[in-house]
Design brief:
Layout (H helix, E strand, L loop, with lengths): L6 E4 L3 H11 L5 E6 L4 E6 L4 E4 L11
Parallel strand pairs: 1-4
Antiparallel strand pairs: 2-3, 3-4
This protein binds zinc ion (ZN).
Zinc ion (ZN) binds next to loops.
Length: 64
């Protein structure tokens, strides 16, 4: 088993994430997930080794 490290990139809007998805389309292996609960789009790009999302993640311990 080998580990792949991904960098996480946060974007303010789905449109920003979508732009990166289109950039990688046809060049990189990628997967895209959409969360209706968070209304967030997430791209996992194995070529860029990046996860790009407009999801808002709160640090452990935050109340809201
Ligand atoms: Zn890519």
């Amino acid at each position: 088993m080998s580990a792949i490290k991904f960098d996480f990139e946060h974007f303010d809007s789905q449109e920003d994430v979508r732009r990166h998805i289109q950039d990688c389309e046809g060049r990189h292996s990628q997967q895209v997930a959409y969360s209706t609960f968070h209304d967030a789009l997430t791209q996992i790009c194995y070529g860029c080794r990046r996860i790009r999302s407009n999801i808002i993640i709160y640090k452990h311990g935050d109340n809201n």
